[in-house]
Recover the amino acids of this structure.
């Protein structure tokens, strides 16, 4: 069997890339080892840049209609019976989609796959695992027949998530950074009026609530690393109590979780491969980098990788310039952006990691000042949205810490748009006509 581009892994990253290539008429084959939907929770929050990308791929309508829009995040810090509120708003951002969107992970995969199947050059092989790579030959195994067979291709993309056969073949090692905490994560019915994202914390606890469509809410609750086993030995009512103590509105809702086995343990980690490309092979998404989930970036980074690499491959095929050296444009665009998002998510993780009152106090103060200081809020939302990258300066940190006064200035729409990535920054090889 032959194909132009073989993608190992049919997660969100692999499917985004495959759809992009199929739309350009490139023959693309996705190999996915799972036979059907995965029961495992994964990323469900789409940032504005991902919505722009899905718009360009012709799937924005089904994505929006199966998602729940979140324009604002409410941040509640509890101090005994007192609650201090702040908020961060996507509406400060320019562009067509000034909000994020919660969508069931498997639903999003269905939408991308269904769109792909409209193109004759799109091939999807479920229940089939990539076993071995040798030059431009990939040995795959249909898991029901246990019969390995070879696929010949021009380019191989590793999109297998955290444990990547392609990354191993490329000889790329990643060093994992672990955290002092884990998360419990589960979806359950929500009160109808819970429509905004909400983070409730005390100096020693954290609960994130992200509304999904169909009156459900995805939750993440922070626990110290290693505590999961002892928690599971307790009655499930102990789990309900952890949630209701932080958010009494959940009484009558979280109690609909009846068994610990419905709740998944999520172990956050962070790594970043030194390089994403070697000869005719490239890595995207979690195969190349994994991010702490605090800022909801993992799935979005995979989508953004797929979009940039997809555009590059489309241009290479359109111009007939298939030298693998051209692939280097992809990490040139993506690596710096990924590093910045890894760093921001890491800082957010640290802000909630240490159960000491001064840390909680400083976090709450910074968040309240960030809400009032429009420049700080804009930078924060721009960075997590994926629409642009505007590094925070020492001055910004001083303002947020209360050492310098809040800025009265507002950013004009032109200034905001000027901070967003341009087409030339997203796809620099186009302007320079440097494909070889
Ligand atoms: C358990 C878990 C929970 C998560 N929860 C959150 C969250 O709450 N919020 C958040 O922002 N992010 C979360 N993430 C991260 C986010 O889901 C990922 O960043 C995102 O899914 C990455 O997309 P991807 O396409 O790169 O990889 P994946 O989504 O991991 O997809 C990889 C695909 O490749 C397939 N595959 C693997 N090996 C092979 C092989 N040899 N041959 C063929 N197919 C193969 C897998 O079956 C899988 O379908 C979570 C990740 C994990 C692992």
């Amino acid at each position: 069997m032959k194909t132009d581009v073989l993608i190992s892994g049919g997660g969100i990253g692999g499917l985004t890339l495959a759809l992009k290539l199929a739309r350009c008429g490139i023959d693309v084959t996705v190999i996915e080892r799972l036979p059907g939907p995965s029961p495992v929770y994964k990323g469900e929050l789409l940032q504005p840049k991902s919505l722009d990308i899905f718009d360009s791929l012709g799937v924005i309508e089904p994505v929006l209609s199966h998602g729940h829009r979140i324009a604002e995040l409410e941040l509640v810090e509890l101090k005994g019976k007192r609650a201090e509120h702040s908020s961060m708003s996507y509406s400060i951002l320019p562009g067509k989609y000034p909000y994020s969107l919660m969508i069931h992970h498997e639903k999003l995969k269905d939408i991308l796959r269904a769109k792909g199947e409209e193109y004759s050059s799109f091939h999807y092989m479920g229940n089939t695992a990539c076993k071995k790579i040798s030059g431009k030959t990939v040995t795959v195994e249909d898991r029901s027949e246990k019969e390995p067979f070879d696929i010949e291709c021009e380019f191989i993309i590793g999109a297998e998530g955290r444990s990547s056969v392609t990354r191993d073949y490329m000889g790329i090692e990643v060093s994992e950074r672990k955290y002092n905490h884990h998360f419990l994560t589960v979806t359950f019915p929500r009160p109808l009026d819970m429509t905004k994202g909400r983070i409730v914390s005390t100096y020693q606890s954290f609960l994130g609530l992200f509304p999904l469509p169909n009156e459900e809410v995805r939750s993440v609750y922070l626990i110290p690393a290693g505590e999961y086993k002892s928690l599971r030995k307790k009655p499930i009512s102990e789990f309900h109590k952890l949630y209701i103590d932080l958010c009494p509105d959940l009484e009558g809702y979280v109690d609909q979780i009846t068994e610990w086995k419905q709740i998944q343990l999520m172990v956050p980690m962070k790594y970043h491969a030194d390089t994403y490309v070697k000869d005719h092979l490239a890595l995207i998404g979690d195969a190349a980098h994994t991010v702490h989930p605090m800022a909801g970036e993992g799935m979005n980074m995979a989508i953004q990788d797929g979009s940039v690499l997809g555009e590059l491959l489309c241009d290479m095929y359109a111009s007939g310039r298939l030298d693998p050296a051209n692939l280097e444009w992809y990490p040139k665009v993506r690596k710096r952006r990924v590093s910045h998002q890894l760093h921001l998510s890491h800082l957010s993780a640290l802000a909630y990691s240490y159960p000491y009152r001064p840390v909680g106090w400083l976090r709450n103060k910074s968040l309240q000042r960030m809400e009032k200081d429009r420049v700080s809020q804009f930078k924060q939302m721009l960075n997590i949205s994926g629409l642009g990258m505007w590094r925070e300066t020492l001055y910004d940190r001083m303002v947020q810490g209360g050492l310098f006064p809040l800025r009265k200035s507002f950013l004009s729409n032109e200034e905001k748009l000027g901070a967003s990535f341009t087409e030339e920054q997203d796809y620099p090889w186009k302007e320079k006509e440097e494909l070889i």
